[in-house]
Amino acid sequence: MTQSSRDRAPADDAAGRGTPGCPTSPRDVAAAERLLTAGRLNVEGRLVQASNATLYCTIEHEGRAANCVYKPVAGERPLWDFPDGTLAEREVAAYEVSKTMGWGTVPPTVHRDGPYGVGMVQLWVEPDPDIDLVALSRSDDDAIRRMAVFDAVVNNADRKIGHLLPPGDGRVYGCDHGVCFSIEYKLRTVLWQWRGKPLAPEALEALDRVAKALNEGPLGTRLSDLLTPDEVDATRRRVDLMLKHRIHPYPPEDWPAIPWPPL
């Protein structure tokens, strides 16, 4: 799913109304989380290329407003290798890991009720249309390298080029993390350019933060609310292995290394 206005279909005549009030930035994490948790969701349309029900919404609360994505659990399609009805919680778990790493890889994301039931709500990030996503995905950009490390931690089975969201300020956000945290090694990504190379010092620092938060801090408790015990343990093992070997992981030998289609 590519977050682009070209992919949005209007719901009734509401699309394009915009977001009145004080806009909320993904950098303002606390304000964004409050807005996403307590705000009133207004469905404006849907992302027509998404495989699961993915609704484009506006959200407003106490003078703040934003655009966001709402994925109700009721709209999830069953998958053969992930338990039914768990994708929304995996998206939130990915955000919690991102927040602990300190890189802001995933836009603010919450789990809450909405017009079509419980689901995931994530702050919308509009990518800069002038940035070539294919070239970005093949580059040695620091933000892309951070994304590769993050994907290894969460065991992302679907990092497509279209899941990269560069707003044009030097940052790169990622979306669509519903198929993460499998207990089996299923890393499938377009970002293999660092495979086998030493992890950067900032990556080792971020991994150390995650390891401590999983074992001694709130991350372990939070992930236990969103994932199975085995999935949380597998996350600990992945982080420990990366800290032990201090390199970017290699592609799996018995699993497709690149998602299809890669875009």
Automatic annotation (TrEMBL):
Query: Bias regions of kind Basic and acidic residues — which residues?
Result: 1-15
Which stretches does the entry tag as region Disordered?
1-27
Protein name stated in the entry: SCO1664 family protein
Source organism of this protein record: Actinomadura meridiana
